[in-house]
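thread from #wetlab-drylab

HS: before we spend reagent money on co-crystallization trials with 1-deoxynojirimycin, can we at least see a predicted complex? here's what I'd submit
DV: go for it
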Amino acid sequence: MSQHTVLEQVDTEWWKEAVVYQIYPRSFNDSDSDGIGDIPGITDKVTYLDKLGVDVIWLCPVYDSPNADNGYDIRNYRAIMNEFGTMADWETLLAELHTRDMRLIMDLVINHTSKEHEWFQRSRQRDGKYEDYYYWRDGAPDNPPNNWNSIFGGPAWTYDEKRGQWYLHLFDENQPDLNWRNPDVREDIKEMVTWWLEKGIDGFRMDAINFISKTEGLPDGDPDRTLVGVEHYSHGPHIHTYLQEVYDDTLADYDVMTVGEMGETSIDQTAEYLVEGGGGLDMAFQFNHLTVDEGPEGQWTLDGWGKWDLSEFKAIMTRCQNELAGEWWDAVFLGNHDLPRILSRFGDDEGYHRESAKLIATFLLTLRGTPYIYQGDEIGMTNAEFVSLDEIDDPMTTGIVEMLLAEGRIESYEEAADLVNYRSRDHSRTPMQWSSETNAGFTDSEPWLKLNRNYTSINVESAIDDTDSIWQYYKELIDLRHAEDVLVYGEYNLLLPNDEQIYAYRRTLGDETILVVLNWSDKPTTFDCPSINTANAKVLITNYESTSTNPKRHEFRPYEATVYRL
Ligand code: NOJ
């Protein structure tokens, strides 16, 4: 059967065919010289995004916020943060994107609000219907209601003197959790969701969405877990009912995409969100494949982090490809604003900067599922170096380091510095490197977070001028994905599961087959795969200047990535 005939039988959607580009507005482009990126700054770069070829922009939160967690603490869902501009600026951005056939998805943060949100301010005064908008519990001021940990370190409860009760916050103390059991909370959220949909957006990335339903009574968590309490709020008892309600009453009437952020969920649990009737999520950001380099106590383990094993990574990715993207659909990503730079984590940002960045790009753009590119990855931005805690803005990093100090597990920041320099969320938040000019062309004044020093050599301007750059390669890959339905809808089959250097897979749709061979290592190797016939292979794209057309007759160089049509 031809590709065309097969396509008539698959469930095609614009969001399956799209390549998404994630923008962290604070760090993207500053148009008014205050050192902070803003919405007009993004609008100035719409032509850049169009040239790269991406289809959808995911904008991290731009709502009014006091910025305890850079916008993930929303004070007013219907207003734009002053530092970022005005609602009119936002409307201009949307119009500019739509004029170029690009779409915009917004971050939807509905597990919690800011402490400064009107709902919380009224709730702490027990004002009418707002009294139970959050999780309030009695208890002596030195005795939190249960033993749950905040994801940002320390207890998940803070005592509010005004109300004389404790409130729950899974994240920072400035981010109180909304009580989804209260139907008025759900009504207010749905109204807000519809308000944004009516403004013409194209979808949502739903923050911490699997945390919105908590076990009734908020019982103590298992004290032996790294994140105490998580079993009582991740994937909670009413999660699918709530999501279904939001879907039925809001999203169902619009042609939009949804991607749920789902930390702490297994692959099996994630699948439950994707099935039809499972709450209307089109795809998910789950993190199982990103645990491979963690130490025994998770991502903030002091020792034993940083090493990862290719065959373990392949096994997890293959489960995600088959059981999530294959059965339903999924988001394909390795980095975002909460994670270290992909190149420093999964590539070799020194010895094989260009080659390994291109290999990772090849991987992201040839899998089944919607690929997400995080700003700056298209030019090979890398982790920065933070010499003291003062250089860090991220409340997660500072919260965890403070917790380690308080627990006596470290005596000074220096003892955690290597871990921070591997793991901190600020690595991906250093300003976008546009040029080699002062402040990387990001701002005319002091940037809010220090720049990565390597901006003089790694920047957009030089990447666009260089025909062999990482940027050009991303662009070519995006074009290739747009041209080849097999790369979007084709089935995924892993080859050589136990090979410790080669990650290879086939994508097949009808009579079309594409073979992807990645030498994910810094040593040469061969592609020793008797089960497939490569005699007539043709190279579609490669990250080395020349390569042989038959992968079996070829020595793959360090981080070589080649895509063939079979
Ligand atoms: C996940 C977001 O990606 C992260 O940046 C934020 O800190 C937490 N959720 C809390 O909203």
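DV: Residues 438 and 444 are 8 Å apart (CA to CA).
HS: ok that's useful, forwarding to the group
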